[in-house]
Amino acid sequence: MEENEPSNNGFCRYLFAGFIIFAAFAACVYRLVDWQIINGSKFLELSNHTSVVTISMDAARGEILDSDGNGLAVNKTGYALVFNKIYMDSGSENKTIIGLIRLLDKRGEKWEDTLPIEINEKGGYQFKSGEEKEIKKLKSKDFLDVNSYATAAECMKYLADQYDCNGYSAKDTRDIVSVRYNMTKDGFSNSTPYTFAEDVDKDTVLIVSENSNKLQGISVKITTKRLYPDGTLLPHILGTIGA
Question: Which of 65, 135, 147, 201 has the fewest C-beta atoms under 10 angstroms from its C-beta?
Answer without folding.
Answer: 147
